[in-house]
Design brief:
The complex is a heterodimer of chains A (74) and B (324). With 74 residues, chain A is mainly alpha-helical. Chain A is 66% helix and 9% strand. Chain A starts with a helix and ends with a strand. Chain B has 324 residues and is an alpha/beta fold. Chain B has an eight-stranded mixed β-sheet. A three-stranded antiparallel β-sheet of chain B has the order 13-14-15, with no helix packed on it. In chain B, strands 1-2 form a two-stranded antiparallel ribbon. The chains are: A mainly alpha (74), B alpha/beta (324). Strand 1 (64-65) of chain A pairs antiparallel with strand 4 (32-35) of chain B, so a sheet runs across the interface.
Chain lengths: 74, 324
Amino acid sequence: MRDRLFIFLTCVLMLLFLASVAENIFSHLESPEQYKEAVVGSGKPGRMLKELLIGIEEAGLKPYEAKYYKVIDE
Amino acid sequence: MSKIKCLLCPTGCELKNGERGKCRVRVNIDGRLQTLVYGKPCAVHVDPIEKKPLFHYLPGTSSLSIATAGCNLHCMYCQNWEISQREPENTRNIDLLPEEVVERAKDADCRTVACTYSDPVIFFEYAAETARLAHERGLLNVWVTALYINPEPLKEAVCFVDAANIDLKGITDKFYKTMSKGTLQPVLDAIKTMKRSGVWVELTNLVVPTYNDTTEDFSKLCDWIVENVGVEVPLHFSRFWPMFQLKNLPPTPEEVLTHAREIAMSKGIHYAYIGNMPGHKGNNTYCPVCKNIVIARRGYMILQYNIIEGRCKVCNHAIPGRWK
């Protein structure tokens, strides 16, 4: 009985350990894409205005006039 | 359709119609720059003001703290990356107009409204209107910010910000470029401007193992502070926790933070603190003259308070800050 309990606990600990290793590996794999997304942007320059507006509306966001900008190219 | 250039921060994004700035929350819609986060915070909490951290400003009071998605820096170790490095379409936002923010602050008996967690620079319009209404209702305004902002909007901000905790992330341009995708000089200039404008300023340096944790880093940082904003500006050395892109690093060792604090004090900085390490003597405020504890803290909790009318209870030395 004691031996079975010991084996059970060992298996549980082993699973937890493997889960934590997997989490570290997969978060590392995700990171370069996340980082690129953060630095470079969505990777979709010139996204259609229509798509943007649909996305904003679906998310329940409302554009509001911002300050501090200038028109540089008509 | 018109291309526009955002003038809010040194990044200076140039946006074609339908494009979004690097902060993720400002977009060009038909030749006009629009913010997507006005009245749409994704974080609203009542925090002790010590959490900002502000140790010399209305100690023991609560601050109604708000943030929206987005940020104009992209720090690899961001402790709030789940909101700062996301578009507002991908965060859980609530509707909370500026007047409602102030109402919540009053209901919760807060003395201040804090714009924090991500960065108030990128939700500037929302922060500004909230601040205006907060003043009307007798509340004070706090910014917790990296202060990566251009001079013109900063000139407006110092009119409504009463106290700020500013991240001075590093003291080299290389650090800002590598770790945050920004530059150093605009931050240094903005800190000086904010201090000169009469805003109560405290600085935070998050110590990231192997990136900005050398004796030289601490010395240069402290030298700049002493020369440019003075020895009475509180400086918080904050402990890094593995987060976002830097999960492979360990938390900052206690001895490194203790060393940083010792360097600051040896350079003459009167109020050097350790953050994210409850129980460290660096949580306390000491009188720079008689060396007695004027405020004892454990984390955000005040254990002893020995300031009377803004002065040390023992030797009567004036301790800078706003105490009531």
